[in-house]
Amino acid sequence: MKQFLEFAPILAFFIAYYVSDRNLLAATGVLIVAQSVLIAGLYLYHGKLERPMQIQFWAVIVLGGLTLALNNATFIQWKPTLVNWVLSAGLALSQIFGERNLLERMLGGQMPLPRRAWNHLAWGWSAAFFFAGALNLVVAYQFSEEFWVNYKLFGGFALTFCYVIATVVYLHRAGHLEDRLDDKAELATTAASDSESSGGKSDGSRGQ
User: What are the backbone angles phi and psi of residue 6, rounded to the nearest 5°?
Assistant: First the structure.
């Protein structure tokens, strides 16, 4: 659910652009407000903000603010590229210099995987973020402003969906998803056995 909420400011930007008769400045103002509301809501609900969301927020505030102040769309068009490249560099640097990469720190508690798998995922997502940032510049400079706005919503969502699918395929082929299912099945069997043992003891106690 939270992942879909993160696309809400982009959707608001897209709608504002067309409602305002393709006014990029008005859409940028709506994006700043929507991103601020999302960040405030997430912070109030969770009590903290993940680093990618912080990067996204400050990129919108700074580059969106420069777009409005200087009446120059270049800044807001560079925003997706800078955010993606910062994430790409962060993953790569944490992989090279850190004991655990950023993905493992963020998701290791929810999805236990061997170190080799985390390494592959970190390099894969780092490359994906770099590609997304480069592709944004190609669209921004080689196509019309309206095409870029459409790409910002639909293209960004499609790329993220493709990366998630690629991650699931990798985990499946490497056997990590099966390992997790086996672990859950073993835990369920153990719990059922414990429950039956407890029930048997209770029946025995009542018989005595």
Answer: -65, -20
**Residue 79 backbone zone (phi > 0: left; psi -120 to 50: alpha; other: beta):** alpha
pTM of this structure: 0.78
Tokens of 112: 């236990």
Q: Do 9 and 35 meet the contact criterion of CB atoms below 8 Å apart?
A: yes
Q: Using alpha carbons only, what angle is made at residue 192 by residues 187 and 198, rounded to the nearest 5 degrees?
A: 125
pLDDT digits (tens, 9 = 90+) for 124-159: 999 999 999 999 999 999 999 999 999 988 988 899
Q: Please tell me what DSSP assigns to residue 48.
A: S
Q: How many other CB atoms are found less than 10 A from the CB of residue 1?
A: 4
For residue 12 the two structure tokens come to 């608001």
Instruction: Give 46-97 pLDDT, tens digit per residue.
Output: 888 888 888 999 999 999 999 999 999 999 999 999 999 999 999 999 888 8
> Domain spans of the chain?
2-196
| Alpha-helix runs per DSSP H in 108-175 | 115-142, 145-150, 156-173
Alpha helices in the chain (DSSP H): 2-5, 8-19, 24-46, 51-70, 74-97, 102-107, 115-142, 145-150, 156-173, 176-207
124 residue type, one letter: G
